[in-house]
């Protein structure tokens, strides 16, 4: 190829445009660039060819020029761990919902849809990732099912994951939730760990400390988003584990972890949302909301605020091996969030892969046919299905205790009256019923117990989003309303429902695997507002009752014991 031919290649154009010898495709004129390494702001042009930045700190001409006087540019934000399904919309709709908040890359784990549909769900996400404007990367779900104590719709072994490993959108192995399996050398877990030793393995290690943490990390696991205290996070940082500060719709750890972010740690800290719904995104934002709040904490400690932006971009990219993004400079991917103020992180425009994000970009995407529209296989129930028989001669029973802002649940107990249909809820002491209805058509089981923390005085709330196996979870003060809510979910093919007095008072259909809506996120947001109001009318005191219901199927927090070094070790597991 001669020199004339080389000038027509993408790389040749980048080199020439960087020198100013030819026009760039796009130039952001007169914009301030935040250097997330030094914190310095420089007024300049940014020249872009295709999806690549080719010039900064010089003056450039472009085929398209945008005057950005008074604006500031920061690297596009990277959400390092999330489940798109928890946004309650499809990946393409999530793209349209979140990209305007400056989030140009996400690393998602399709764990939820995989627990319902198996490999079909992962393929659907990868097909969608090829069409999104933002760069959606996928970590392959490592724990399907998540626990042997539940009934999921699918099972994924290493043989099911390997066909996806070479896909250009796949980063590595998703959160290794089964840390007891790691520590006890479970053969299936070991096979997955062995297969990804030369790639990224994402962590999930709540309260794992001391020698158990060492053993877990020795498997090649380098990240964790489950730290819920600064002390826990600092131990993990000290051992070389990157901490992903999580702030979702239910799991809210930012306030507890904000103090770990400073000039010494920001290269080893990144941000994630894990589970965040459209209502919270509409009210608070996405990663931009986390950056805003971290800036407030940094300023209160007289720390430079660019460390929040570093954690949201450059550090995230380095931690996950995305070597082409996270800085604004020649040769780097043109993912840029344009702000009108650094302190408030107010995103006004976004450049994703070199393109100015507009509605036209979303409209031009190829649509991907939804999957899992027939995944709801539960049969209708009656009120009698929720009768809780006491143990002979006993009316004392275990109770699951929930706390706002935590997906961790706690073991409690209550002494309940016995009626004609077994143990009765105690509304005065905030003890209501909870049940899990198997919906994959495998065994038809119904698990029953009691829960404290919702505050319901009447009615019921039901959800087909039930982490991690996604059966139907329902809580209620009335068996009849519990049946009404569950049966409405079965009719809709999944979703959320509130029942009161034998009628459904609010609902949201989630027919895509019982997890996601086919509607635009604006419609989902409005329905969530109605659902939240209906739950509050029942007396619910939780700010996010539907996601809190969704996490009730998870096992109770493990019992812990203190070691002679003052660290926690897992003693035994206790499930309600």
What's this model, at a glance?
It is built from 19 helices and 28 strands.
- Tally of DSSP β-strands: 28
Distance between the termini: 69 Å
Strand content: 25-35%
The mean pLDDT is 93
How many helices does DSSP assign? 19
Low-pLDDT parts are 556-576
What share of residues is helical? 25-40%
Structural Rg? 25 Å
| Largest sheet geometry | 8 strands, mixed
SSE-based structural type: alpha/beta
What is the overall shape?
Answer: elongated
Keywords:
576 residues; alpha/beta; eight-stranded mixed beta sheet; 19 helices
What does this structure look like?
With 576 residues, the chain is an alpha/beta fold. It is 27% helix and 26% strand. The strands form 6 sheets. Strands 1, 2, 3, 4, 5, 14, 15 and 16 form an 8-stranded mixed sheet that branches. An 8-stranded mixed sheet has the order 18-17-22-21-24-23-25-26. β2 and β3 (52-56) form a beta hairpin. α4 (111-117) packs across α5 (119-129) and α13 packs antiparallel against α14. It is elongated, with a radius of gyration of 25 Å.
List the helices and strands and how they pair.
Elements lengths: L2 H4 L3 H9 L5 E11 L6 E9 L2 E5 L5 E6 L4 E4 L1 E6 L8 H8 L4 E6 L2 H7 L1 H11 L5 E6 L17 H4 L8 E7 L2 H5 L3 H9 L4 E4 L6 H8 L5 E2 L5 H9 L3 E5 L7 H4 L11 E4 L5 H7 L2 H14 L5 H7 L1 H6 L16 E4 L7 E6 L2 E2 L2 H5 L32 E6 L8 E6 L2 E2 L2 E2 L7 E7 L8 E7 L7 E4 L8 E5 L2 H14 L2 E6 L2 E7 L11 H17 L7 H6 L8 E4 L5 E5 L4
Parallel strand pairs: 1-4, 1-5, 6-7, 7-8, 8-9, 9-10, 11-12, 12-13, 17-22
Antiparallel strand pairs: 1-2, 2-3, 5-14, 14-15, 15-16, 17-18, 19-20, 21-22, 21-24, 23-24, 23-25, 25-26, 27-28
Helix pairs in contact: 4-5, 13-14
């Amino acid at each position: 190829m001669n020199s004339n031919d080389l000038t027509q290649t993408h790389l040749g154009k980048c080199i020439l445009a960087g020198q100013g010898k030819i026009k760039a495709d796009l130039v952001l004129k007169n914009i301030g660039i935040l250097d997330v390494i030094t914190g310095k702001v420089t007024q300049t042009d940014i020249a872009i060819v295709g999806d690549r930045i080719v010039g900064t700190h010089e003056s450039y001409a472009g085929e398209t020029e945008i005057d950005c006087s008074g604006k500031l540019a920061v690297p596009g934000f990277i959400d390092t761990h999330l489940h798109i399904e928890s946004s309650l919309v499809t990946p393409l709709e999530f793209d349209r919902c979140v990209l305007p908040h400056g989030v140009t890359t996400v690393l998602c784990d399709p764990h939820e849809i995989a627990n319902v549909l198996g490999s079909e769900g992962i393929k659907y996400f990868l097909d969608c990732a090829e069409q999104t404007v933002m760069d959606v990367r996928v970590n392959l779900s490592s724990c399907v099912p998540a626990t042997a104590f539940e009934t999921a719709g699918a099972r994924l072994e290493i043989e099911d994951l390997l066909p996806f490993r070479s896909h250009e959108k796949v980063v590595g192995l998703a959160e290794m939730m089964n840390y007891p399996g790691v520590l006890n050398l479970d053969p299936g877990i070991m096979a997955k760990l062995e297969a990804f030793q030369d790639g990224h393995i994402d962590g999930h290690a709540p309260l794992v400390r001391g020698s158990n943490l060492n053993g877990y990390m020795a498997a090649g696991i380098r990240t964790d988003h489950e730290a819920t205290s600064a002390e826990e996070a600092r131990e993990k940082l000290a051992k070389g584990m990157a901490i992903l500060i999580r702030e979702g719709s239910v799991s809210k750890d930012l306030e507890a972890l904000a103090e770990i972010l400073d000039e010494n740690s920001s290269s080893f800290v990144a941000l994630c949302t894990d589970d965040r719904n459209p209502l919270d995104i509409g009210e608070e934002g996405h990663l931009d909301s986390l950056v805003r709040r971290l800036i407030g904490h940094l300023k209160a400690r007289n720390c430079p605020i660019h460390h929040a932006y570093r954690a949201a971009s450059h550090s995230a990219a380095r931690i996950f091996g995305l070597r082409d993004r996270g800085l604004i400079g020649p040769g780097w991917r043109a993912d840029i969030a344009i702000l009108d103020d650094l302190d408030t992180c107010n995103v006004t425009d976004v450049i994703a892969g070199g393109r100015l994000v507009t509605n036209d970009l979303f409209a031009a995407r190829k649509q991907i046919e939804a999957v899992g529209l027939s995944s709801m296989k539960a049969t209708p129930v009656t009120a009698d299905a929720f009768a809780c028989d006491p143990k002979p001669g006993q009316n004392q029973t275990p109770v699951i205790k929930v706390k706002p802002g935590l997906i961790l649940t706690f073991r409690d107990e209550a002494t309940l009256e016995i009626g004609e249909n077994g143990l009765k809820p105690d509304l005065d002491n905030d003890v209501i019923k909870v049940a899990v209805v198997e919906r994959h058509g495998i065994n038809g089981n119904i698990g029953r117990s009691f829960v404290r923390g919702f505050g319901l005085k009447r009615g019921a709330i039901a959800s087909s989003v039930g982490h991690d196996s996604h059966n139907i979870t329902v809580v209620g003060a009335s068996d009849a309303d519990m049946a009404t809510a569950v049966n409405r979910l079965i009719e809709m093919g999944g979703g959320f429902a509130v029942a009161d007095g034998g009628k459904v008072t609010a609902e949201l259909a989630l027919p895509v695997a019982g997890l996601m809506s086919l509607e635009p996120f604006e419609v989902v947001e409005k329905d969530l507002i109605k659902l939240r109001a209906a739950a509050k009318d029942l007396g619910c005191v939780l700010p996010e009752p539907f996601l809190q219901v969704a996490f009730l199927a998870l096992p109770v927090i493990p019992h812990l014991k203190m070691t002679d070094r003052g660290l926690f070790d897992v003693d035994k597991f206790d499930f309600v």
